[in-house]
Amino acid sequence: MQVSTSASPTKKTRRDIKFLPNKVATVENATKADKNPPLFQLEHVLKICSKVQPASKGEAVVYWMRMEDLRIHDNRAFSLASAQAVKDNAPLLVLFVLSPQDYIAHDRSARRIDFTLRNLRVMKDTLAKQHIPLYTITHSPRTTLPDRVLSVLAEWKASHLFANIEYEVDELRRDIKVCELANQSGQVQCTFVHDKCVINPGKVTTKENKAYAVYSPFLRAWLPHITDKPDPLACAPDPKPNDLSIHKLAIYSGLFDSSVPAFVEGFELKLEDAEQMRTCWKEGEDVAHAMLSRFLHTRSRASQMGAVDPLTEGVKEPQKEQSKNSRVVKYKDERDRVNADTTSRLSPYLAAGIISGRACIRATMELSNAKKVDASRDTGIGRWVQEIAWRDFYVHVLAHFPRVSMGRPYQEKFSNVQWETNEEHLQAWKDGRTGVPIVDAGMRQANKMGWMHNRVRMIVAMYLVKDLMIDWRLGEKYFMEILIDGDLASNNGGWQWSASTGVDPVPYFRIFNPYIQSHKADPTGEYIRYFVPELAKVKGKGENFILRCTDVLTATCQRCMNHLQRLPKSLDILHLS
Questions:
Q1: Which keywords appear in this protein's UniProt record, sorted alphabetically (predicted)?
Q2: Backbone Cα Rg of the chain
């Protein structure tokens, strides 16, 4: 088989397999984290912080922007920081910290880092028009990052620090340290708030006050909280502009002259890849909201299936009368189709916080002119809102059961599974040359676009862990390394679902049939033909097309994987679904 249509942007398999044991916490450390989750430790420290009154009034208020809240509009911490600045008659400053060691530890993709930098540049220009400086620093080692932040605050003579909470274990422990240092100094009051989820972690619990580990009852308990007071869907006020006088203050005026780095060392993109990412995933809040509007108001198009600009011309401007046939209305029936842009493709923008889940739900209510949130299984809007609830669910799981971010399976009974460590098979899967058409198309889409349709993510994930019997953590790691929408909670949740080791998983004996799944998701074969050019001339559709594609791939494979010889290809006898 031929290699991937684009050079693989990740490390080779041999290093991956050796690296994996270092990513898995011991049972003792994982159990300790679960008994006293870092999120609740942080909330306890924040209660102490709220009682701390800075020794002096201070001369500035700082909003610490993170990788998951790259927006100005509807940003809770940013809004609160602005209100404090207005109250104190002090300038509002924005800090962003680039931490390469954290990116390495969390397998961040160079594509995601590039996307972050592009969005920072847009926001820096936008905020400068409001006389608010956005200042970016790069810091290593990550262990001293809290000290560096407090040092910057002291340099700026800041009295208040605001930030939105990140839910990964390392980030929570970092924030705990920042708060402790601030309390010790007596100079800074820290306020960290929930912003990522529609309903905050800790609010959706069972009658026994425990976190849900199954999605359906979680959804039933999640939905009533939408009507809580204060309104969880309320749009946070935009930050107020600083006074022009900030430009006359030497300590702050220079911040406007600083620049956002062109790249982070070790996370550079090749020119061709960078151009592809700029085509498929443009930066800016305006882009995210325009993509949402198209999803709500316009029809899907086969021409938008692949690596193209999501806002390309060729579709009429969104009109309300078009909505009855729009992608969101058809979402219930067409969401698993991969041969057109049937989904919103907003995952990179949600993962980076360029648009909020709240904004997405508000938009669906406006579309249907409804006073209540539709989260039913019977409508397209309801199904899409359920996807936003899934995003909340996995963040809640991460917050309540932090061991899932420490390399441990949620279901510890599967922790001793002996996985295969076949390096050739893993690399073939990464490159999209397994010989299974839908799997190869999906992996090549990820390698080319930095994104993959969710249905195909499930197909390729289950193929890796249940056909090749390779450790799900290696697949989880690879996705984080190449996808532009890499999100630890959702990525881990999806991989553990596929491996039957996580919360609410498929039974261990359920295995996706890649041929049946291909027929359902890509009935015309256009998706496979697009991403696997060796098959571009294979005609037909349905079962015969899929089997001809498999024969072509097997015949042209120079290093055909042995397991292919053992897999029956009939749609009737391979696997269960």
A1: FAD, Flavoprotein
A2: 24
C-alpha dihedral over 27, 32, 35, 36, to 10 degrees? -150
DSSP state of 523: T
Tell me if residue 55 falls in helix, strand or coil.
coil
Q: How many residues are recorded in the chain?
A: 577
Among candidate residues 75, 495, 513, 534, the one labeled active-site is 495
Instruction: Determine which one of 64, 281, 390, 429 is catalytic.
Output: 390
Task: Please give the Cα distance from 83 to 87 (Å, whole number).
Answer: 6
The mean pLDDT value for 46-63 works out to: 87
Rounded CA-CA distance 77/65 in Å is 9
Tens-digit pLDDT profile for residues 282-306: 999 999 999 999 999 999 988 888 8
Nearest CA to 248 among 131, 95, 403?
Answer: 131
Q: Is 384 a catalytic residue?
A: no
Which residues lie across from 158 on neighbouring strands? 60
Angle of CA points 98, 100, 105, to nearest 5° = 125
Give the residue among 503, 483, 504, 295 at the shortest CA–CA distance from 385.
Answer: 295
Least confident piece of the model among 46-60, 320-334, 551-565:
551-565
- Rounded to an integer, what distance in angstroms lies between the CA atom of residue 91 and that of residue 107? 36
DSSP H/E element including 191: strand 189-193
pLDDT of residue 53: 82
Computed over every residue of the chain, the mean pLDDT equals 90
User: d(Cα 212, Cα 401) in Å, to the nearest integer?
Assistant: 10
- The two tokens of residue 85 are 């600045």
In whole angstroms, what is the distance from residue 164 CA to residue 148 CA? 18
Residue type at 435 in one-letter notation: G
387 is catalytic: yes
Whether the Cβ atoms of residue 285 and residue 355 lie closer than 8 Å to each other: yes
Give the span between the Cα atoms of 447 and 12, in whole angstroms.
14
- In the set 200, 472, 491, 513, the catalytic residue is 472
Per-residue pLDDT tens digits for 540-563: 877 788 888 888 887 766 444 544
- Catalytic, 472? Answer yes
pLDDT at site 566: 44
| Catalytic-labelled residue, pool 43, 59, 180, 419 | 419
454 is catalytic: yes
